[in-house]
Design brief:
This protein is an alpha/beta fold and 218 residues long. The chain is 35% helix and 9% strand. It contains seven helices and five strands. The strands form two sheets. The chain has a three-stranded mixed beta sheet with strand order 2-1-3, with helices on one face. About 7% of the residues have low confidence.
Length: 218
């Protein structure tokens, strides 16, 4: 004779037995779980942060490393005065090797209607010089001949009879070609006897002579 409790317990046991995978099923589930764990570990390992090594530059035998000298900004500057008919007259600071065109640009350019043709825009400027645009500079104010060359007379005027080609090239409106013509004319006539002899030089017209007459002497 079965009791009611026995009937309920037997039914539960039979239902649990229906879901028993058996020994082979347990092994299969364990193998799948192991594969899942292995894949998860592999993904985590690949996604870990990495530190890339920085290669150290190698020096060849006998090679040395030297630091490039840093030039002083004040030593590299060239300061010139730009006056006359320009937009912003005054002192301008230029890089070494700058030319008259650079100084003119730094001063804002010439005023409207001013002819800059008499200026040698390609001439390199000299520290401390005065560049006058559209007007005749005062006597002795625009000399750029280095001290000690002997080409500048008292008052800062350039001596036409002792000036070199480089000295003449510093004069406004005089480039290397015209400077050489002045030297050739000086040699041909045995020296200049007066400043007005510049009129005999090919390429020096009335306008250029008026620009140079107060800057030179004999």
């Amino acid at each position: 004779m079965r009791l009611p409790g026995d009937l309920g317990g037997g039914g539960a046991t039979s239902r649990l037995g229906a879901f028993d995978p058996g020994r082979r099923g347990v092994k299969a589930l364990a193998a799948v779980a192991a594969v899942v764990v292995l894949i998860a570990a592999l993904i985590a390992w690949r996604s870990r942060p990495r530190v890339e090594p920085v290669p150290t530059p190698s020096l060849e035998a006998g090679a040395t490393v030297t630091a490039a000298p840093v030039a002083s900004a004040s030593a590299a500057e060239v300061v010139v005065a730009v006056g006359g008919k320009v937009r912003k007259p005054g002192l301008v600071q230029l890089a070494p090797g700058a030319r008259v065109a650079d100084a003119l640009q730094a001063a804002g350019g010439a005023a409207p209607g001013v002819d800059v043709a008499p200026l040698n825009l390609a001439r390199k400027v000299v520290d401390g010089e005065l560049i006058m645009v559209g007007v005749t500079p005062p006597p002795g104010a625009a000399t750029t001949a280095p001290a000690g060359t002997g080409s500048a007379a008292a008052g800062g005027l350039v001596n036409l009879n002792s000036a070199t080609l480089a000295d003449l090239d510093t004069l406004p409106g005089v480039g290397p070609v015209l400077a050489q013509r002045i030297l050739d004319a000086r040699d041909a006539q045995g020296g200049f006897k007066a400043v007005t002899d510049l009129r005999k030089v090919d390429g020096i017209g009335d306008a250029r002579f008026e620009q140079l007459k107060d800057l030179v002497t004999v």
